[in-house]
Amino acid sequence: MREKVEKVIDSMKGKKPTILSALLAIQEEIGYIPKEAIPEVAGLVGASANEVYGVITFYTHFRLEPPGEHFVEVCWGPSCHVCGGKEVMDAVLEELGLSSDGTTKDKKLTLKRTSCAAACAQGPVISIDHNLRGRMTPEKAREMLARVKSR
Amino acid sequence: MPLSFDELQQKAQKEWEAFQRAAPSTRILVGTATCGRAAGAQNVVEAFRKALAQEGIHALIHEVGCLGPCYAEPIVDIIKAGHPRITYGNITPEIVPQLVRDYLINDNPRADMALGIHGDGKIDGIPNLFEIPFFKLQMRIALRNSGIIDPINIYHYIANGGYSGLKKALEMTSEQVVAEVQKSGLRGRGGAAFPTGQKWQFLLGAPGPTKYILCNCEEGDPGAFNDKAILESDPHTLLEGMVIAGYATKATNGYVFIRYEHREVIRRTQMAINQMREFGLLGSNILGTSFGFDISIALTGESYVSGEETALMEAIEGKRAMPRPRPPFPAQVGLWRKPSNINNVKTLSYVPEILRRGGEWYAGIGTERSKGTAIVCLSGNINRPGLAEVPMGTSLKSAIEEIGGGAPNGKQIKLLQTGGPLGGIISASQIEVPLDFDAMAGKGAILGSGGIIVADERTCVVELLKILCTFIYEESCGKCFPCRIGTAHILDLVKDITEGRGRPGDTERLLAMGETLTSSLCGHGQLTISPIRSAINYFGDEFKAHIEEKRCPAGVCKALGRQG
Q: Would you call A135 helix, strand, or coil by DSSP?
């Protein structure tokens, strides 16, 4: 893990990195922010570990734990809501055995609820591994999750 | 030695003509902006590749941006030699092989699948695209190229008048460019509707040498997707606008501020920036003049408040995106403590045409105090959701009924949620209001960033307010206490009402708390009262039914009966 972090940190050198840009690069590459990365980022930009931790906990997508194999996002924003987004959300929560954001017991899927996926005209929207799908129904969502689970 | 602008234009013209004539071969354009992708456009691209290979047809596939009629996604245009360009709607991967055989091999243009044709040509049974109800009322300035040109082909942009505005600006003084934008009456499209020329004047007057132009594409408002759509569909219109802003204010650098997760938006914007560098439109000595300006993309994480102008600067500096107190204003102390100007994507995207066609031309469009066009995102319970650009002053009713086709399944429209979660919730009875900053604000509706969510009779207004208040609470940055604490109390109270624990006086309590939050540091807390006040104003009876009669008239709130 230390090597992976160092590789990302090295690639940032000379590019005027900030705490945020370094963290974004690490999560993009590794999928989460491993503990080892905090002092590395602090060293890279000349900040304290405390400041780095402060940035991690501010932006809601940063994770300190590795996510599941697949990443599911479901939109609960007002556009999707009025088109039946709540039914889709309920179906996904039930299908994954979760009550909110989190990772399934088998570490297969991580769910993150989102307030806007930027495809409001196609609501309700879900995304699996960053592939958006619109005009979702509870049935279609269950089918898609079943397919992902069996992969 | 880069080409001169004249040479560039000639080359661009040739390339654009070849594209329109389908030379050297047929052109297939698939809309793969975010909305198209959500409808499966990537699979359509694959299906075309496969079908073309199978039939042994040579054609060029272009991935284009968003034409606007999201209801008909996936959208595909075909330009076949000797025929007008045809736009097709609802093209699924399953239909593709048939369409390829019918049109490309057997010359049957499949009028049944077509939305419309472009230009003067005629094909039996296919209307002119811009005469169909979705487009008829539209006037496309910032969206003029969206879905029409290949967004990552700079020649397409130049052939359609691109960078002529910049060329013209560079022949004027900075002061003259600012005056031209002032003459246009352009007001900011990010929500606050501040006069753009005046904002530029502040930065022009600030001391250099280093000054920044920041373009805000954070666009976290649920229901608004127009900024990202512009960058996916025609990134050069924004980037040209930024360079002109840079020249007008004597700024040195620009940043386009985008959330990390919008990968396609980032990819297309970065490609456009690279092309500008290659063509001498960015960097030092732009178009052979002594003016230099550079643009980079600054990524942000997930935080709604990072779209607030001072929080945005904190985020670019890599910190927690928390707003700064003002004064000092960004034009004095901005990014990295240097003078800075922040504009929204749409605002800057109008600038190239304002320069090319003149401020007076732009000022001739729209209403007395709201000039130009409104770019609206129609979503929710509406037959034709999508992205549309209409002259300011067009009624909300025309946008929703004529462009959007009204509510589906014969349902009645109940309410409109406009201008993002910090905008308003207004009754359908107010639908005659013109799209105009001041007229909308007068109704408590707020045009804001252009999101219009239509909800029919199945929506419970209190539950919708709960959704908005959940958003406002979860996204409060926590820096100042009225917002941090107040949004939590407001959400608790709205939840109580939806769950049968409402008490008489709750609506007054909500309004009082909303009023207290106006003392917050930034718009997030200050505007929290807007959705609350407008919802209670237009739907007081529905709140009363929940609170006093323990009844949800829409039958949505599970803890309450419909009849009480």
A: coil
Left if phi > 0, otherwise alpha if psi is -120 to 50, otherwise beta: which for B45? Answer: alpha
Query: What was the ipTM of the complex prediction?
Result: 0.96
Cα–Cα–Cα angle for B174, B178, B183, rounded to 5 degrees: 145
State the distance between the two ends of chain B, measured CA to CA, in whole angstroms.
Answer: 78
Cα A86 from chain centroid? 20
Q: What is the pLDDT of residue B563?
A: 72
Q: Taking CB atoms and an 8 Å cutoff, what residues of chain A touch B38?
A: 117, 119, 122, 125, 132-134
Nearest to B308 by CA among B534, B526, B88: B526
Residue A150: per-residue pLDDT: 87
Contact criterion met (CB < 8 Å) for B302 and A59? yes
- Residue B157 in contact with residue B237, Cβ under 8 Å? yes
- What residues pair up with A103 in beta bridges, in sequence order? A110
User: Is A121's CB within 8 Å of B467's CB?
Assistant: no
Mean pLDDT of chain B: 97
Give whole-number Cα distances, A101 to A75, A104, B355, in Å.
12, 10, 48
What domains sit in chain B, N to C, each tagged with a CATH number? 18-136 (3.40.30.10), 154-363 (3.40.50.11540), 373-456 (3.10.20.600), 461-548 (1.20.1440.230)
By Cβ distance, the residue of A17, A51, A118 closest to B228 is: A118
Half-sphere exposure of residue B327, counting CA atoms within 13 Å on the CB side?
4
How far apart CA B499 and CA B506 sit, in angstroms, is 13
Spatial strand order of the sheet with B451-456 comes to B386-391, B373-380, B451-456, B413-418, B424-427
The structure tokens 């979503």 sit at B379
Query: A128, A148 in Cβ contact below 8 A?
Result: yes
Measured between alpha carbons, how far is B392 from B507 in angstroms, rounded to an integer? 34
pLDDT at B457: 96
Asked if B320 and A131 come within 8 Å (Cβ–Cβ), the reply is no
CA-based nearest distance B498→chain A, Å: 15
- At A100, is the pLDDT very low, low, confident or very high (cuts 50, 70, 90)? very high
Closest CB to B464 among A78, A80, A117: A78
Per residue in B65-109, pLDDT (tens digit) is 999 999 999 999 999 999 999 999 999 999 999 999 999 999 999
Q: Do B321 and A62 touch (CB under 8 A)?
A: no
* Unique residue bearing structure tokens 């190229």: B145
pLDDT at B180: 98
Amino acid (1-letter code) at residue A118: A
Mean pLDDT to the nearest integer, B150-174: 98
Are A72 and A128 a contacting pair, CB within 8 Å?
yes
